[in-house]
Amino acid sequence: MRAMTLDSYGLDPRLIELPVPTPGPHQVRVRVRATSINPIDWKQASGEARPLLGAKFPRFIPGYDLAGEVDALGPGVTGFSVGQRVHTRLSGSGGGASAELVLAGLDVLQPMPEGMDFAQAAGLPLAGMTALQGLRDACRLPMSGATVRVLIIGASGGVGHLAVQLARAAGAEVTGVCSAKNAELVGRLGARHVIDYTRPDAWSGQPPFDVIYDCVGSSPGEFLPRLTAHGRFASCLPGPAVFAHAALNLVRSKKVLPVLLSANAADLSVLDALVAKKQLEVVIDSRFPLAELRAAWAKSRSGRVAGKVIVEL
Ligand SMILES: NC(=O)c1ccc[n+]([C@@H]2O[C@H](COP(=O)([O-])OP(=O)(O)OC[C@H]3O[C@@H](n4cnc5c(N)ncnc54)[C@H](OP(=O)(O)O)[C@@H]3O)[C@@H](O)[C@H]2O)c1
């Protein structure tokens, strides 16, 4: 099988032939049809994420999200069949998605929703679960009913565009922060208000928010004044300032929360159910073939992606 691999840190993966892997207990082998790029892929490959997340050499296969068809079942696998369309965010921190055949554990595997194509299904798991866990678990956003004012910073990005839709599906009044070129998209996805972060008067007259979900690495100190008295600020790009503010959560009514994705099949099934109800869609920014993984990373590294970058096999 073909796979994109690195044998040392860098952003120039190469296509090589590898033996077909054999699924172990509670694993399936998936014939990959699409993967999606997440910033962690190129941060891990480049070594930028090394203090938190290393890459294992002599051979590292980058990537976490994939969609495809079950190709073989390992011992003890029930509930999946050969040929079934599935998607996943691979578990652990070892990557592995950028290959024609990949082993996936049942703990993170879900059948693809009816009518969803491989590109969209590959774009959903990592970003979607990060959006869901940030809003539901860190921000404690009631997932049905109550009217809550939610601000999504980075509303056009991979995580943000799904967070806008999840908050909207939960009944929240959503404000999205994005640049003017993405305002229409973010509005179509469910934001009632859009704030153009490039305008100097962007924040004038904004009432406070119950929930702020930051997907771009904003300073919590800047946004605490924009929270209601018991509001929550969560960040999926938590730096030292987020942890420093989080240390004060016990003595302060406004909370600051870091979000660290925990991949699991149950949360992916929550997202899939919303896709099936047409309350959640994956916006595709661009598509690349496997051999052009480097160009797909460059697109993501530009920081200007709207939705997801997809690699098709
Ligand atoms: N903690 C975790 O477990 C976890 C999980 C997933 C992702 N992450 C991290 O979260 C971050 C976001 O991931 P992603 O996949 O959503 O990234 P992404 O898709 O690359 O985000 C790009 C988007 O950010 C927008 N943006 C950039 N600066 C902005 C600003 N100041 N205000 C508002 N929007 C801005 C861009 O819009 P414009 O073009 O309009 O600027 C673009 O649409 C990454 O750093 C990633 O590593 C962490």
Number of distinct helices: 9
User: On the 0-100 scale, what is the average pLDDT?
Assistant: 97
CATH topology heading of the largest domain: Quinone Oxidoreductase, Chain A, domain 1
Q: How many domains make up the coordinates? A: 2
* Bound heterogens, unique: NADP nicotinamide-adenine-dinucleotide phosphate
Q: What general form does the structure show?
A: globular
How is the quaternary structure best described?
A: single chain
Structural class: alpha/beta
> How much helix is in the residues?
10-25%
CATH C-level of the largest domain:
Alpha Beta
State Rg.
19 Å
Low-pLDDT segments, ≥5 res: none
> Which percent band covers the strand fraction?
25-35%
Element string (H = helix, E = strand): EEEHEEEEHHEHEHEEHEHEHEHE
**Which CATH architecture of the largest domain is right?**
Alpha-Beta Complex
Tally of DSSP β-strands: 15
| CATH superfamily membership of the largest domain | Medium-chain alcohol dehydrogenases, catalytic domain
Through-space gap between termini = 12 Å
The major sheet is characterized as: 7 strands, mixed
Description of the molecule:
With about 325 residues, the chain is an alpha/beta fold. It is built from nine helices and 15 strands. The strands form three sheets. Strands 3, 4, 5, 6, 7, 14 and 15 form a seven-stranded mixed sheet that branches. α3 packs across α4 (about 160-170). The chain starts with a strand and ends with a strand. It binds NADP nicotinamide-adenine-dinucleotide phosphate. NADP nicotinamide-adenine-dinucleotide phosphate binds near residues 127 and 177.
